[in-house]
Design a protein that fits this description.
Length: 514
């Protein structure tokens, strides 16, 4: 069993007792009582906190991490050991002891099982594997190694260790290390840590117990679970994990979808994919790719003899990768079809009906590019407007359409088009008063499609509705491209309604908290 463990890392005994109750109700399977957060602490208080955990019928780890190992306990060993002894006396099942404070075997501690731990809060230590050997010499019940992941490829050390040794704790801290926490159950680790609340992490990179259970499908994960994820930077606020995991739930597919932060260069992107393909046991079968790696993904597929959808090559961007059981990689672009379908579905027409329709594209970035590719493909009359005029010109020349010099979109005096599509970020949360064009330019009967989806009703769409233009929001495009990815990943149609519900839910929650 891999225990979903909640660290109780709060500053008072009363808060600790309340947190224990909350963790138990949230579905914690083990508790780690961080006595070093509760300083100063009497023996009676230790007993009271441990008793609350025992009452909750959850196994308990007692930890009193000294400051020289990244914890908050500033006292001496002579002061620390009695607190741990008291915790065991009160019913703690495990005691966490740091490798650096142990000179001999640590099979048990006054009858409790021992976790021997070692932490590096800066980096992946070069002697990582030797550290495990030093820990094993102490013959603990459980070995624990934790280090800071500076980049995503640092995760492979912990994942390889879990694959080889199974019943231990090996994890990479920080946002780039999150997958080591999410893979624990699949790889049979002893535990993973999940914080009770967003601001109660006992180490960087912990996700909350709510996210672990309700987004990352903790209860459904098995050794056979197939893994998918989104590569990007930033990736923390991406809706994709929520949307795809909800789709796995809805369809009963044994899958897990995780965030994969790759901040670095094309080399880092390639090194991660090489590492994934070498480790077939990770079962990573498909990946979504977002800013800034869509072009890197295309180059990677080409360089590794993979299959490339011709349209993805024409657009110059891959937003979806699939990896087969032989490690062969294929690249697709679902942004284009997602956007085109959102437009024609809302207009109640077919793609071919867009032939000859005049379309103004506002923006010349990645989304504009996919739009222009799709629209010119069906023969629409496209004109591109962009703040950086040279980018509009380059894009127009590449796809054989028009461009207009409009460095200040907001100063434009006329707009002669049947369809207007906003592909800029203007109007996006939190700067919701932003809008790309003046309301006066929107005419009755125009179709106004805003690719921004947070908020759903942007100022541009509000303006459009007020003059009886047809307003189309960006969420359907997002859901369409995700549903097409889901189909590439699983060979099943994406459950769009469930995906949309999950996305809306997350958008609403985020708007409440910011
Ligand atoms: P991108 O490649 O960074 O392009 C951003 C575009 O916005 C550029 O044309 C940029 O003009 C323009 N822009 C940014 N700030 C501006 C400002 N203050 N005034 C005028 N123009 C400005 O980004 P992208 O990937 O194309 O994404 C663009 C937007 O599409 C996102 O913000 C997001 O809201 C939306 N989106 C929607 C979906 C969906 O599925 N619905 C998916 C992805 C993105 P310059 O060239 O002058 O910098």
């Amino acid at each position: 069993m891999t225990y979903l463990t909640v660290p109780i890392a709060v500053s008072s005994v009363d808060k600790a007792r309340a947190a224990i109750q909350q963790a138990a109700s949230a579905g914690a399977e083990m508790l780690e009582l961080r006595l070093d957060y509760l300083q100063p602490l009497t023996n009676n208080e230790v007993t009271s906190v441990v008793a609350a955990a025992v009452e909750a019928k959850l196994p308990v780890i007692a930890t009193c991490r000294p400051n020289w190992e990244g914890g908050r306990f500033a006292g001496s060993e002579v002061q620390r050991q009695p607190l741990l002894r008291q915790a065991v006396k009160a019913g703690a099942d495990y005691v966490d002891l740091e490798l650096a404070c142990l000179e001999k075997k640590a099979v048990e501690f006054y009858g409790a099982k021992v976790i021997v731990s070692n932490h590096d809060f800066d980096k992946l230590p070069v002697d990582f594997h030797n550290r495990l050997e030093y820990i094993k010499i102490r013959e603990p019940k459980i070995a624990k190694l934790a280090y800071m992941a500076e980049k995503i490829t640092d995760c492979f050390a912990a994942l390889d260790m879990l694959r080889k040794d199974g019943n231990l704790i090996a994890l990479a801290m920080g946002e780039a290390g999150v997958i080591t926490r999410l893979f624990t159950k699949k790889l049979g680790a002893f535990l993973t840590f999940a914080s009770l609340e967003k601001d109660q992490e006992s180490a960087p990179g912990q996700v909350t117990i709510d996210e672990m259970k309700n987004i990352y499908r903790w209860d459904a994960i098995t050794a056979d679970t197939k893994v998918y994820g989104i590569i990007g930077s930033p990736v923390g606020h991406s809706l994709s994990p929520v949307i795809h995991n909800a789709a796995f739930d809805e369809t009963g597919f044994d899958g897990l979808y995780v965030p994969l932060l790759i901040e670095g260069s094309r080399e880092e992107f390639s090194a991660f994919l090489d590492g994934v393909r070498e480790r077939k046991w990770l079962d990573i079968k498909g990946l979504s790719v977002t800013i800034p790696h869509k072009h890197n993904a295309l180059e990677y597929v080409k360089a590794n003899g993979g299959e490339l959808e011709s349209l993805a090559e024409r657009i110059g961007a891959v937003n979806t990768l699939s990896i087969d059981s032989n490690g062969k990689i294929s690249g697709y672009n679902t942004d284009y079809a997602g956007a085109m379908d959102a437009l024609v579905e809302a207009m109640g027409i077919q793609r071919v009906d867009l032939k000859g329709v005049t379309v103004a594209i506002l923006g010349a970035g990645g989304v504009a590019r996919a739009m222009v590719a799709g629209l010119t493909d069906v023969g629409a009359e496209v004109t591109i407007y962009n703040r950086t005029v040279e980018k509009a010109q380059r894009l127009a020349e590449e796809f054989g359409c028009r461009w207009a010099a409009a460095a200040e979109l907001s100063e434009m005096q006329s707009l002669d088009a049947e369809v207007v599509i906003n592909c800029t970020s203007l109007g996006m949360h939190p700067k919701v008063e932003g809008t790309p064009i003046k309301k006066e330019l929107i005419k009755k009967g125009m179709v106004v499609f805003d690719t921004v989806y947070n908020p759903l009703e942007t100022r541009l769409l509000r303006d459009a509705r007020q003059v009886d233009a047809q307003a189309i929001d960006g969420l359907q495009m997002l859901i369409n491209q995700a549903a097409l990815q889901f189909e590439i990943f699983t060979s099943k149609p994406g459950p769009k309604e469930a995906m949309r519900r999950a996305a809306l839910d997350k958008i609403m929650k985020e708007q409440k908290t910011t």
